[in-house]
Design goal:
Elements: E1 3-6, E2 11-14, E3 17-19, E4 32-36, E5 39-40, E6 43-44, H1 46-55, E7 61-68, H2 71-81, E8 87-94, H3 103-117, E9 121-125, H4 128-141, E10 146-149, E11 151-152, E12 157-162, E13 167-173, E14 179-183, E15 203-206, E16 239-243, H5 254-263, E17 266-269, H6 271-275, E18 296-300, H7 306-309, E19 317-322, H8 329-332, E20 335-338, H9 341-351
Parallel strand pairs: 3-13, 4-7, 4-9, 7-8, 8-15, 9-14, 10-14, 16-17, 16-18, 18-19, 19-20
Antiparallel strand pairs: 1-2, 5-6, 11-12, 12-13
Subcellular location: Mitochondrion matrix
Protein name: Electron transfer flavoprotein subunit alpha
GO molecular function: electron transfer activity; flavin adenine dinucleotide binding
Length: about 350
């Protein structure tokens, strides 16, 4: 039976979906949880901290898996050991094979670590990294992954969005162990005072890679590019200023960038703006881009396609500016202004104070 319930911004329902590899699957064990973590510059990335927070819902010991090479990896391991009191062990795989975030070596590493650890749950953030590694790792483990989890009801039951976030689905996992899932980091915000607590530090152990299979020639790392500016990361920014196709070209999109600079926020864009070449695709917000939940989201020239709304509807305050009073974006906006963005943005730039 499906129960309908209207909310402020979405219709949600509860349904049972059963994921099983075998009708004779044994009952799940709840001994320990493995969190697959990303690190950069010697620290754990924010989405992985959210994955750790989500893993505490299972009331089991947590092992954190880090991989890479060099001093940055060991600095990240030291940071991880004190990042949350629920972490009992940090596992470090130090090898050039994990220097770059390729799915094949990482998935085989997860499989190797699980063989020795026998984890009941394997958790990762639903980032580009998690979406790349987890499906392959789950295939090697012969289980069905549950992706984009936004709420953990119990050790078997999870809530995830479907239909581009317009409905919520309750999934009951009945498959064999381990239960593999990715979590939406915006749904598990990490309190600032929970990070870097020195009250207890987890042990750090090296992963034995002597039996690691090196047949990994299915893909190769070419290069990585990133935005080199002073703006905050789009996925974790408190303020996000986004623009759509209505800005017409890349030159006009600088209005969005200027406003973001003034407010100390990150720049976002719709898929249409990205496809038109106004900005790089790593700034895309939406179902096929980044999921954001800032304190303030300002949308300029964005009509409010369902795919875009899926990526920003959880923002605390949404402000929309569009010259079409019937634009769907106004249905989810807390504040809306019908007007020409080419007039509104210059006025905001003139009247808003400089960021402190």
């Amino acid at each position: 039976m499906i129960l309908g319930a209207f909310t402020k911004r979405a219709v949600s329902f509860s349904a049972s979906h059963f994921l099983s590899r075998s009708s004779s699957s044994s009952s799940l064990r709840y001994g320990s949880t493995l969190v697959i973590a990303e690190h950069e510059g010697g620290v754990i990335k924010a989405p992985s901290l959210s994955a750790i927070l989500a893993a505490t819902s299972f009331n089991s010991s947590i092992s954190l898996l880090l991989a890479g090479s060099g001093s940055s990896l060991h600095q990240a391991a030291s940071h991880a050991s004190s990042s949350h009191p629920s972490i009992s062990q940090v596992l470090v795989a130090d090898s050039d094979k994990f220097k770059n975030p390729l799915a094949e070596p990482w998935a085989k590493l997860v499989h190797l670590v699980h063989q020795s650890g026998g984890y009941s749950h394997i958790v990762a953030a639903s980032s580009s990294f998690g979406k790349n590694v987890i499906p392959r790792a789950a295939a090697l483990l012969n289980v069905s992954p549950i992706t984009d989890v936004i709420r953990i009801s119990d050790s078997h039951t999870f809530v995830r969005p479907i239909y581009a976030g317009n409905a919520l689905c309750t999934v009951r996992y009945t498959g064999s162990s381990p239960c593999v899932l990715t979590i939406r980091s915006t749904s598990f915000p990490v309190p600032k005072n929970s990070v870097d607590s020195k009250s207890s530090e987890a042990s750090i152990s090296e992963v034995d890679l002597s039996t690691f299979d090196e047949d990994l020639g299915k893909s190769r790392y070419i290069s990585q590019t990133s935005q080199d500016d002073e703006r905050p990361d789009l996925g974790n920014a408190r303020v996000v200023i986004s623009g759509g196709r209505a800005l017409k070209n890349a030159e006009n999109f600088k209005l969005i960038e200027n406003l973001a600079n003034k407010l100390g926020g990150a720049v976002g864009a719709t898929r249409a703006a990205v496809d038109a070449g106004f900005v790089a695709n790593d700034l895309q917000v939406g179902q096929t881009g980044k999921i954001v939940a800032p304190e303030l989201y300002m949308a300029f020239g964005i009509s409010g396609a369902i795919q875009h709304l899926a990526g920003m509807r959880d923002s605390k305050v949404i402000v929309a500016v569009n010259n079409d009073e019937d634009a769907p974006i106004f249905q989810v906006a807390d504040y809306g202004l019908v007007g020409d963005l080419f007039q509104v943005i210059p006025e905001l730039l003139e009247k808003l104070p400089e960021k402190k």
